[in-house]
Design goal:
four-stranded antiparallel beta sheet, alpha/beta, about 550 residues, Aspartate Aminotransferase, domain 1, Sufe protein. Chain: A, single chain, binds pyridoxal-5'-phosphate
Length: about 550
């Protein structure tokens, strides 16, 4: 489909210099219908729900509750009492992990998770496991990150209390065979929770057909507002669970010393809910239902095109499933640092995510520091993919001009042999550079001048916290003068370190204390090229250096 008719419905994606948005797995954009629905609430319908009896409150309450039924039908739940409003998938999982009790769990039982889980579907269970002395077991993946289903199923046994697994991996896009997992868990009496955060906007979900006990998702990943999400739970289980939070709305009778609580769903919804969010979610559900066939078609065409295009860059490595996948692809490029790629793509107006994607254990399992994740949604176009591919090729050329494949992890750093940076006019070169590509070329060239920290010192003791990329620093004060060594796996960060070192290296410690990094970056014209997190990372580096100088002074 050459022209995507849905794109025009998303105001932020049309305009003079439209954003190339490839980060929908983090949060999707919102169609005008959703934006207008939330506006309408604040403009014309603003009243609290379930409290006041005046006409406006009653009307708003009716609209609010109608969305509960809409969501019930959207996911095929038996009753609207099984739909609980939460802040999002994270809160939904926390709710379940906090409200299951000894009635549901016995010491020594197992909680089964997969190696693919988002931190939101790991950490709450770790806490629950500690409280109830349960054991966590992990369903394994292969070296590409695909679930090893035979082995996964074997782990489910009569000692399994709960299986919590993601429907779709947020990092790799894999659609997991949750039907098989749920079936085996049910047969052995284990509860099941499905994290549907990444599935809900791409797949038709029917919780009764799946027969899972819990299904969770967030509105903001399905074209809806932030701060609102859903916990679906089977009525009988939800009824057996104690409330999550206490206060207004969830009570029946309150005395000074004791209270009784409402039934479902209100017993889990203490306090004023996100009313605009719920109404916006209703509009998002309507949007998906209206356009489902078109959404499926657009996303599958785009994904096929993306895979075809990526195959043209020889350094690209694909992770996860490509056949059984939503329109999301994680890649790495042999020999290239993904933080560097991310910076260069961002400079070219490409919104994309790099890093561990809140799946640190999965990254460890795959032996990766992170991936570059391209996640598509119904508003993307072939032109977006072309723009991304062009930007990626530019970035690859800039990072590896001769396109020689070089694995930096194998490069021996002979930093002891390098002379300390002399007063090189790095700053001048940066200042004189015209355009983002020249600026970054100069930054990377500057990295060659860096006084590098020997590899054996690149350990936790020398690591600077608060940087987006890994940075190690060694600051020594010899006869009141500062001596710096540093390193990072990112070429760009190495260049930025060299630029900082240029002004600080060999200086007297008193002058370090008054050095104004932000002003310096501004003077070089660099601040507009650095994202706030990277700018903050550099500030963290300078803070670290200043602290080391203070400590050294205090010692003398
Ligand atoms: N689960 C998965 C698979 C996710 O991708 C995410 C968010 O990225 C979450 C859970 C948490 O969602 P939220 O931050 O909306 O609560």
């Amino acid at each position: 489909m050459q022209n995507n008719p849905l794109k025009a419905l998303f105001p932020q994606l049309v305009g003079a210099r439209p954003l190339i948005y490839l980060d929908s797995a983090a949060t999707s954009h919102k169609p005008l219908s959703v934006i207008e629905r939330t506006n309408q609430y604040y403009s014309n319908e603003n009243a609290n729900v379930h409290r006041s009896s005046h006409t406006l409150a009653a009307q708003t309450t009716a609209k609010f509750e109608a969305v509960r039924q809409q969501v019930q039908h959207f996911i095929g739940a038996k009753s609207d009492r099984e739909i609980i409003w939460t802040k999002g998938a994270t809160e939904s999982i926390n709710l379940v992990a906090n409200c299951l009790s000894t009635q549901h769990l016995q010491t020594g039982q197992k909680i089964l998770l997969s190696a693919l889980e988002h931190h939101a579907n790991l950490v709450p269970w770790q806490q629950m496991a500690q409280r109830f002395a349960l054991q966590i077991r992990i369903m394994p993946v292969d070296d590409k990150g695909c679930l090893l289903i035979e082995q996964a199923l074997q782990l489910i046994d009569s000692q399994t209390a709960l299986v919590a697994v993601t429907h779709v991996s947020n990092t790799l896009g894999n659609i997991n065979p949750i039907e098989l997992i749920i079936k085996k868990a049910k047969a052995l009496g284990a509860m099941t929770l499905i994290d549907g955060a990444q599935a809900i906007s791409h797949l038709k979900v029917d919780v009764q057909a799946l027969d899972c006990d819990f299904y969770v998702f967030s509105a903001h990943k399905m074209y809806g507002p932030t701060g609102i999400g859903v916990l679906y739970g089977k009525q009988v289980l939800l009824e057996s669970m104690s409330p999550y939070q206490y206060g207004g709305e969830m009570i029946q009778q309150v005395g000074y010393f004791d209270s009784t609580f409402q039934g479902l769903p209100y017993k889990f919804e203490a306090g004023t809910p996100n009313i605009a969010g719920v109404l916006g979610l209703g509009a998002a559900v309507a949007f998906i239902e209206q356009h489902r066939a078109l959404i499926d078609q657009i996303e599958s065409e785009l994904y096929a095109y993306l895979l075809q295009q990526l195959a043209q860059i020889k350094q690209v490595q694909l992770w996860g499933e490509t056949k059984n996948s939503i329109a999301l692809q994680s890649i790495t490029l042999i020999g290239l640092n993904i933080q560097d790629l991310s910076i260069l793509l961002s400079e070219q107006n490409i919104a994309i995510r790099t890093g561990h994607h809140c799946t640190m254990p999965l990254m460890q399992r795959l032996g990766l520091a992170g991936t570059l994740r391209i996640s598509l949604a119904c508003y993307n176009t072939f032109a977006d993919i072309d723009a991304f591919m062009q930007a990626l090729k530019n970035a690859v050329l800039q990072l590896a001009p001769d396109s020689a494949i070089q694995d930096e992890s194998n490069v021996v750093v002979a930093s002891e042999l390098r002379p300390i940076v002399n007063i090189l006019p790095l700053a001048q070169k940066i200042k004189a550079a015209q355009g983002w590509d020249s600026v970054y070329r100069e930054i990377m060239m500057a990295g060659k001048e860096l006084n590098r920290l020997p590899v054996h010192l690149q350990v936790a003791e020398y690591e600077v916290n608060g940087c987006e990329s890994q940075v190690w620093l060694n600051c020594e004060v010899k006869e009141q003068h500062l001596h710096l060594q540093g390193d990072s796996p990112s070429k760009i960060v190495r260049g930025l370190l060299a630029i900082i070192f240029e002004v600080l290296q060999g200086q007297k410690v008193e002058s370090i204390a008054v050095f104004d990094m932000a002003a310096y970056l501004h003077q070089l014209g660099l601040s507009r090229h650095l994202s706030s997190s990277r700018g903050n990372g550099l500030l963290a580096v300078v803070q670290f250096i200043k602290l080391q100088c203070e400590l050294a002074c205090a010692k003398n």
